[in-house]
Amino acid sequence: MSTKTGKTLIVKNETFYLNAYVDQFNKRLKIEDFRGNLGHILHYIENWSKQPFVEKVIVKSRRENIRTLIEKGFLLEASVPGYFLGGEGFFLCKYKNIDRYNSDRWCEEDNILDSVWQKRKQKEVLLDPNLTLRVAEVTDAIALSDFYKNVFAIYPVPIEDPDYILEKINSNTIFMLLEEKGEIIAAASADMNPFYKNAEITDCATSPSKRKGGYMNSLIRELEAELVKRQIYCSYSIARALSFGMNAVLHNLDYTYKGRLKNNCYIFDKIEDMNVWSKDLSLMDAQKLAPIAEK
């Protein structure tokens, strides 16, 4: 098992339900869902967060619990409209380590965002007819893992492990890939929550030599079309705040910036701040597939 593989904790009793994810690789505790007696829930969260590796606690909350969480020292960092079966989800955080709290590139990331917003949106472009855009199958797991291994020096989940990709494909994740002469040159995924009907657009990567082709726009449009087929309209993505390119792609596809998660995870070559973007797919013609040139 990869050292990046975390552990899910679920507590159910007479007063509350709590679903948490212990992410030791990224030194954080994520509260994925909860309901019931908030006082009892916060007691459990506080005890779990005392583990020595925990530097950050992230709580995904509904609107009605925001005030109580803020009164307990949590900071509101981002939100995703429609996250909880149509209701907005809020990401509130608490830090256990001053170095994890401090972000020395925050202003630089603000400047990158300003540049993204000033960029004129581009129209859809036709893909070269020699490229193949398709949904990944289980037989693609090894090729996908090799592709991601060559793109990312560090990634917050074990994307370089073919067994991990196989597990994701067989559960609730759609991988979309773009091939040139049988070789993967770009890929992305939609990690779906079938209960709450949301999906995270993630695992977005393009081979370094192919990054001027605008391929990620087409990949994400195809993923959106797959989500709409499943009546999933809440689409969101969490992008490196230092990446002009990925943030520009999301802006170009009409995603809305919804906040920044400070020192959120280890990615690329270090721990980084991550921007949150969201989109309501019910408000656009998401079923229109990204155009592909006729062969």
UniProtKB/TrEMBL annotation:
InterPro entries, per database record: Acyl_CoA_acyltransferase, GNAT_AblB, GNAT_dom
Record Pfam families: Acetyltransf_1
Record domain N-acetyltransferase: where: 131-282
SUPFAM superfamilies referenced in this protein's UniProt entry, alphabetically: Acyl-CoA N-acyltransferases (Nat)
PROSITE patterns xref list: GNAT
UniProt keyword list: Transferase
Entry's Gene Ontology molecular function annotations: N-acetyltransferase activity
Domain of life from the UniProt record: Bacteria
Name of the molecule in the record: Putative beta-lysine N-acetyltransferase
Organism: Sutcliffiella horikoshii
